[in-house]
């Protein structure tokens, strides 16, 4: 087997492993490209939604760990609570510019860029919450 065929097999195996992980999490994804530079160094371009597209590079284990971290972040952010306790889906918030809760709070989607890790982090912003917090 030539080295290129060997590397191609490793690329296919990694793509299949990632596909299984993301499918088992119930998320939509697309793997644009996987490139093996040697038997344990890869670069991959993948979209995991609603996270978005990203490039990952490193060993097979590092890439799998990062994919699992992305899945955990997505799942942790799938539902969130307003200050009154009512829960909303992340998808609802991303589809609308503002959600007005039954308690009167306005919930908006925003994001910040974390420079230390060079990644965008979704955050929730509440407006007029102080009107709904009981005063002593």
Could you please describe the fold and organization of this structure?
- The chain has 136 residues and is of the alpha+beta class.
- It is built from three helices and eight strands.
- A hairpin with a 2-residue loop joins strand 2 (41-49) and strand 3.
| Quaternary structure type | single chain
Task: Give the termini distance in whole angstroms.
Answer: 76 Å
How confident overall, as mean pLDDT? 77
The helix tally amounts to 3
Percent strand equals 35-45%
Overall outline: elongated
- Which range best describes the helical content: under 10%, 10-25%, 25-40%, 40-55%, 55-70% or over 70%? 25-40%
Number of strands: 8
Following the backbone from N to C, one meets helices and strands in this order, namely HEEEHEEHEEE
Main β-sheet: number of strands, strand sense, barrel status?
3 strands, antiparallel
Tell me the Rg in angstroms.
20 Å
Low-confidence parts lasting 5 or more residues at pLDDT below 50?
A: 112-116, 121-133
The helix-and-strand class reads: alpha+beta
Describe the strand arrangement of the main beta sheet, using strand numbers: 1-2-3
Keywords:
single chain; 136 residues; alpha+beta; 3-stranded antiparallel β-sheet; 3 helices; 8 strands; 33% helix; elongated
Which secondary structure elements does this structure contain, and how are they paired or packed?
Elements (H helix, E strand, L loop, with lengths): L2 H22 L3 E11 L2 E9 L2 E7 L1 H17 L2 E3 L5 E3 H6 L2 E3 L5 E9 L4 E9 L9
Antiparallel strand pairs: 1-2, 2-3, 4-5, 6-7, 7-8
